[in-house]
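Example record

The entry below shows one chain as it appears in the dataset: sequence first, then structure tokens.
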Amino acid sequence: MERIGIEHVPLEARHGRPSQLFTLWLASNLTIADYALGFLPVSLGVPLPEMIVGLLAGNILGSLFLAAAVAMGPKMGLPQMFISRWSFGRKGNYLFAALNWISTAGWFTVNVILGTFAIQTLLPSVPFYIGAALTVVVEVLLAIYGYDIIHGFEKAMAVVLAALFAFATFIILTQHHAAISSYSPSTLGGTSLAVLAITLAASFSYVMSWSPYGSDYSRYLPENTPYRASMLNTFVGAFIGSFWLEVLGAFVAVIVPSASNSISALPMAFGVLGLPIVVAIALGGVAANVLNIYTNALSALVLDVRAKRWMVVILGGCVGFLLALYGAGNFGRFYEQFLLLLDYWITPWLGILAIDFFVLKKASFARMSLIPNFSWRALGSYLIGVLISVAFIPSISYVAYSGPIAQLLGGADFSYFVSFLASAIIYYVLSRK
């Protein structure tokens, strides 16, 4: 069992190779949530070319954001939200650690719901609460054992999931090629730019939302690990896994538009051959959720919670289980809004962190004891960046507001990029001296 919580990983305990980042981020993105995300653009009536372009662009950008976060781990030897203290201060960082705790709990819930749907497809007589409880117990146990067990598990899952989803892709392309190539949505859920932007935002949001996890899974690597090696392995693994599964999900949605949800569509699309694909979906949910609950515990500890790591892992698992019982009934709406709302806090946070780490290049573990309780430059830059981006936010969820620039763009949402650039630029100008 891993003994280190959020403490610095000493040099003598460093081990591993950058290639393990490839298998970890591949397996964690060959998952049920990516597959379900592919149904969103089809439900909006996005034409196939715009759908592919939006998913491609979103995954490239999101994987780059994640790769930048992962690269910080070997140098600092700390979890991602602990590294965030460098920019925002010990107590100023509480906001972001709390937001990440909420985010990881939300993703954990999403994957528990989808994984349980997969179990019920295989075993219809199993009640939802039983399937969810079994899923949570397995994921919590893996997270309690920690870093090395997680990397080993994800390496095995990368092979198993890649083989199963390659089989699924082969079946889809050979048996349903005509239905996919002739797909033409009858209605478009907004302007062409708006639905393209929603597709980009959703795919970007999913893979980018791993960024606050990044260094949690690279902090044990040797301190001299090159940035290029850790970034390249992370980018390629995350991009392949996420883009592949989202396109596969979109193709299944095209083939069986009458399906009530993404899981029930599998037997309709694959017939008897759908059973191993349902198994892959269930295993993929576990692969992603182990990371969710492990990072959830580290984020809680960064809030200076006085508890052992295994204790907060169990607490997070219990919270996710209860949320899954609550959210399973209206999953589609919950998932779409959860995805789109994720962008808003993460991108300006990461913009400031990237300036500190890659531009100013002053961050180091040796100087962490010198950080103040609050870094007003960082917090002010963050707030201003978010305020600037408000004009670019379209109408979402149940908020009766739509930014004026978003209206000019036909409801397209580019606010997350605006907040990233605005916060980063303002922080650089304030900090370069």
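Notes for this example: The chain has a mean pLDDT of 89. The first helix runs from residue 19 to 27.
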